[in-house]
Write a structure and sequence with these properties.
Order of helices and strands: HHHEHEHEHEHHEHHEHHEHHHHHHHHHH
Structural class: alpha/beta
Strand content: 5-15%
Shape: globular
Oligomer: single chain
Number of helices: 22
Helix content: 40-55%
Radius of gyration: 27 Å
Length: about 425
């Protein structure tokens, strides 16, 4: 008999790659993780991605399909002692003649491990005693120590696409023992998919909430109205596993971006009151300073970075004042995303055009052969010319003249734009 108390997300958790939804770049035909599973040779790696995209599920599938012993730790509840106890067991297994494969240790939320906890893993991974699989919602470059990163490949998981969410919805309605018994009418999915935001667990929690709030003698209606009303009436039920945390982060970021200091400081207070890691908040402020303020006020990045550093020196609870100062400064600052857009345009161009050759006059010529081949020939040293500028081609021939940076109107970029227009006028 199906237990109604078990969340739908857990009832519907895939047990094989064939049932796994999304992440085709990793688990699709020829995907690196699929190949590892099929060959039964699992290397250490870290899964990085937002909540609800299948990190833990993928680890459990590996546990089920591999011959290796599988151990699980949560960085939220486990200390150095727990890690060492597991590693001792793995060491005993590694020395056994009957062991077929290295034991696998899965650590959920590995970004919450401090340096000493991560150090305790390093030797075991380095010596081949254990295969490490970590899962994190945070950029491993910031939170995982470099020696451990060098021994574990990082694989990025993406939010589920709309077609993936549709597949998940169809599967839930057709495969779940409880939903199968309900008369269900799917009229609209726009609100359902929008609130899910690429998160499988969110979508299933919403379905769970709708099912539980609809009388058994009435049809289960899925449309924009029913989804929105259910979430407004019972938001915490939707947030079973802490997803609202990410909604508050989103509101915080959008309030700063939207130049509303009062809303920004309110959402900051919600984060602080909710026990959010101050470093996480500071890191979001650094990103905001570069992405949303950018060249309109380059000092914003300096202040945000100083905020991050000051937190480490001052600690908590006084650190909240530093975060508040930075938040208000960023919220009230002029805004520009021109640098953010410029790098994305350039990356898209690189993706489309590939590895275009560097013009000969820009190439380095450390050897006589390279000089004979024309490397560096004709290069003009800008400082030798008026205004430290000279007409010269710097882009590859195929994309010469392309503009990636498009300044937006603000006092800072107006000055930059005027200077560049003046220099480009010299060309003419």
């Amino acid at each position: 008999m199906m237990n109604n108390n078990i969340p739908l997300a857990e009832r519907l958790r895939p047990e094989s790659l064939d049932d796994y939804i999304g992440q085709k770049h990793l688990v699709g035909e020829g995907g690196v993780i699929r190949r590892m599973i099929e060959l039964g040779r699992i290397n250490s790696f870290i899964l990085w991605g937002p909540p609800g995209v299948g990190k833990t599920t993928l680890a459990k599938i590996i546990a089920k399909t591999t011959d290796a012993s599988f151990y699980t730790l949560s960085a939220v509840t486990s200390g150095v002692k727990d890690v060492r106890e597991v590693l001792d067991k793995c060491k005993q297994e590694a020395g056994s003649l009957f062991t077929k494969a290295r034991p696998i240790l899965f650590i959920d939320e590995i970004h919450r491990f401090n340096k000493s906890q991560q150090d305790s893993l390093l030797g075991a991974v380095e010596q081949g005693i254990v295969t490490l699989i970590g899962a994190t919602t945070e950029n491993p470059s910031f939170e995982v120590i470099r020696p451990l990163l060098s021994r574990a490949q990082v694989y990025t998981l993406k939010p589920l696409e709309r077609k993936d969410l549709q597949t998940l919805l169809d599967r839930a309605l057709s495969k779940d023992a409880i939903l199968q018994k309900r008369q269900t009418e799917v009229k609209e999915t726009e609100a359902l998919f929008r609130f899910a935001g690429g998160d499988a667990r969110k979508l299933l929690n919403i379905l769970d909430l709708l099912e539980q709030s609809t009388p058994k003698d009435k049809p289960l209606i899925i449309d924009d109205k029913s989804v929105t009303e259910s979430l407004q009436e019972n938001p915490m039920a939707f947030d079973r596993n802490g997803e609202m945390h990410y909604d508050i982060i989103s509101a915080f970021i959008k309030s700063v971006r939207g130049s509303d200091p009062d809303a920004a400081i309110y959402w900051l207070a919600r984060l602080v009151a909710g026990g959010e890691d101050p470093k996480f908040i500071a890191r979001r402020l650094v990103i905001l300073a570069a992405e949303d303020i950018g060249l309109a006020n380059p000092n914003a990045l300096l202040l945000a970075n100083a905020t991050f550093d000051a937190l480490a020196k001052i600690g908590w609870p006084e650190g909240r004042i530093i975060l508040a100062e930075c938040t208000i400064y960023l919220a009230t600052s002029a805004k520009s995303n021109s640098a953010y857009l410029a790098i994305d345009r350039a990356l898209e161009n690189v993706r489309m055009t590939g590895d275009l050759p560097v013009p000969l006059h820009l190439r380095n010529a450390p050897t006589s052969l390279m000089k004979e081949l024309g490397y560096g020939e004709g290069y003009k040293y800008a400082h030798d010319y008026e205004n430290h500028f000279v007409q010269q081609q710097y882009l590859p021939d195929a994309i010469s003249g392309t503009r990636f940076w498009e300044p937006v109107s603000n006092p800072s970029e107006d000055v930059m734009k005027a200077r560049m227009n003046g220099l480009r006028g010299l060309k003419e």
